[in-house]
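Figure 6 in text form: structure in, sequence out.
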């Protein structure tokens, strides 16, 4: 659907630069392998979505079979911190479209996030200004909007367990309507990965 846009934030899979908390427990190579698996899961989960897809790389645009040119547009994240980068990505889409659109942004480290959740997020934007998908660690795995709300990106303690609640507080402060998706688990630590494998039926296969 032309009015639906999905932004996917990914880190370039470079040894020593991804999943550092996993690397502290499992080593840099295993952390990189896991992140590459998470990228593949993310790509598979969004492949059949009826929307326009945009991947935003952390450092440089990759010529990789996972993110084919025909599959989606490729961009580089712009900004000093995560909030600035997300706000910039939303602004990029809203500026490029002349009519009303719905924009949903996800990361690449929540393997249980499916096309069902994303489609639900788009549908919730019919009646809400913002939709959030809270993560177990206190952050969020998804945010969607019908127009940019710059104020909700400010004064957030990014990469902490306060991100989701601080964002909700900002939304309430500015009387922005919102909806919430089910709580899911991001993969940041060895325990997160072990829990995910257990639910997937692969106990002990770290």
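Output sequence:
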């Amino acid at each position: 659907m032309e009015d639906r846009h999905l932004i996917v934030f990914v880190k370039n899979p470079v040894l020593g630069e991804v999943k550092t908390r996993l690397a502290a427990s499992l080593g840099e190579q295993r952390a990189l392998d896991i992140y590459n698996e998470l990228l593949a899961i993310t790509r598979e989960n969004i492949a059949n979505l009826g929307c326009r897809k945009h991947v935003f790389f952390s450092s440089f645009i990759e010529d990789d079979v996972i993110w084919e040119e025909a599959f989606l547009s490729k961009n580089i994240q712009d900004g000093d911190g995560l909030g600035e980068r997300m706000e910039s990505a939303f602004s990029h889409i809203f500026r490029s479209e002349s009519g009303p659109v719905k924009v949903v942004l996800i990361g690449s480290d929540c393997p249980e996030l499916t096309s069902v959740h994303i489609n639900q997020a788009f549908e919730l934007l019919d009646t809400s200004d913002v939709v959030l998908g809270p993560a177990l660690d206190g952050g969020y795995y998804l945010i969607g909007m019908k127009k940019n709300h710059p104020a909700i990106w400010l004064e957030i303690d990014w990469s902490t367990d306060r991100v989701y609640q601080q964002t909700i507080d900002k939304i309430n402060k500015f009387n922005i309507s919102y909806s919430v998706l089910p709580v899911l688990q991001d993969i940041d630590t060895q325990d997160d990965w072990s829990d995910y494998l257990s639910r997937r039926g692969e106990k002990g296969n770290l």
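Caption detail: The chain has one domain: 4-199.
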